[in-house]
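From the pipeline queue, job 12 of 40. The input is one protein chain; the requested action is below.

Action: predict structure.
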Amino acid sequence: MSTTRGYPRDAGLAARMTFVMFLLGLLYVAVMAALIAYGVNFVFVFVLAGGLLFAQYYYSSKIALFSMNAREVSPAEAPQLHGIVDRLCALADMPKPRVAIADSDVPNAFATGRNPSDAVVCATTGILRRLEPAELEAVLAHELSHVAHRDVAVMTIAGFLGVAAGFITRSMFWFGPGIGGGRRDRDEENNFFLIMLVSIAVYAISFLLTRALSRYRELSADRGAAIITGAPSTLASALVKVTGAMGQIPTRDLRAAEPFNAFFFTPAVAPGFSISSLFSTHPTLEQRLAQLAELERQMGRPA
């Protein structure tokens, strides 16, 4: 175990998160302004947007656990898992998050929650069964790095901005231009094409921005985990083992897990075409292993 105390500060991650949030915020404000100028009632836009943000931000952990069929476990129910989290939190000088287990054979782990005090770290039954204790510790150190850097909350909000902007824009098509008391003096055919173009643009821009940020934050979490545990090679071993085990998981299970890839330790990608395989939320396995090998070299050990 490393004697390093606390996760290292990642100035690059902080700068990227700030920049992406700024751009997404501009996009969101622009869409809201366009809808209001178009004739949508301001109160309706504000209440709907605010309500969606509140629900996403404050209930993100509950939503994630429910969607993954996960439940919180006590130290008596999962002593080894709690023991690992206790040691890592003491080493990182951070509050202990709640601990959960997801009943899924997909070997993975994730962290969620709006801040370190509200965080939950979750491991699947599949990863608990496949990894050695040291490898599991490295994976959980990766997830706790996300919590320590607060990028779980940033990714939750970043993902919400694109989805909400697209949803509100499309609502114009679903319910008509008069939604919320707006005007109804627009040409319906032109409205249709305008709304669809705006929706496509909103999704495309937010999608690309959040994917780029997601890939960098995974490299940052790998780096933080390797430094806090002092064992880059152990995390590399866990990465190889988990990635290899994905090939044994039924395609239907992988596709069901794909919506959570932005929060997973490694992406659950089903064979064939998918959005996840086209624009991955994670760097390639080769990139992650190369970074860990370099960290191992810097620590004075053979790669």
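Job complete. The chain has twelve helices and four strands.
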